[in-house]
Amino acid sequence: MSGATNMTQPALELKDLRKSFGKTEIIRGVDLVVQPGERVAVIGPNGAGKSTLFNLISGRFGPTSGEVLLHGKRIDGMKPYEINRMGLARSFQITNIFPKLSVFENLRCAVLWSLGYRYTFFKFLADLEDANDRTEELLEMIRLDKKRDVLATNLTYAEQRALEIGVTIAGGASVILLDEPTAGMSKSETTRFIKLIREVTEGKTLLTVEHDMGVVFGLADKIAVVVYGELLAFDTPEAVRANARVQEAYLGSTVADSQAGGH
Fold first, then answer.
1. 109-122 pLDDT, tens per residue?
2. Hey, CA dihedral for 169, 174, 177, 178, is it positive or negative?
3. Global pTM?
4. Contact 142, 200 (CB under 8 A)
5. Last residue of a domain, one of 166, 182, 203
6. In what order do the strands lie in the sheet containing 24-34?
7. What gap in Å lies between CA 69 and CA 224, rounded to an integer?
8. Which helix H or strand E contains 51, and what residues bound it?
9. N or C: lower Cβ tally within 10 Å for the chain?
């Protein structure tokens, strides 16, 4: 990271974050500092608490105790839309778009909200040049400009995920959370999608939950390993790959497999 980045607040900070459901503690005292512009992959076995952690960061759940800070400001306990307005956007495991709207209309809906138009339906959408220009930019960025008038329901699965990425970044959020973005994709689709994610999140802070270790080692600057609700390791891919505790708890032969695959 550059020296300029070190002079700023962390993009995201978790302080002794805990979440219990009844008597069951799912997140057990996680401390994490993510600097602006870092790409962080959150990995761990099923049931480790990865999605719960994302839900706490994005405001879907409130923590039992601890703090979540976005650019130095506490956001724990805030509603998801309030957190979104502060510059954090999240996509979900399940594609979250309007299937009966065109690609262009899906993106424009997200852009209109981000530009402050809200529910001003009395305005003619065609006359909103700033919104339309921004939507066209997004179309090209996610490489769906040739599908601009296609209904979202008629896109391929990979194209729908690309559209969701476009919707996620439409508001100009500086911190992006992606929940298993390549799940269900073929190997070739995954390769293209990693490249797309890299491009559209350039200069932004990225957190992604991902099971595909090829994606993890190909995309992340740092890896956060969550096991049984605790942060087992947070380091560079190389350091995590060599971490005996991580290999024992989670990675094992998967690391060797990803190395053999050239990732």
1. 888 877 766 555 54
2. positive
3. 0.84
4. yes
5. 166
6. 24-34, 12-21, 65-70, 73-74
7. 17
8. helix 50-58
9. N
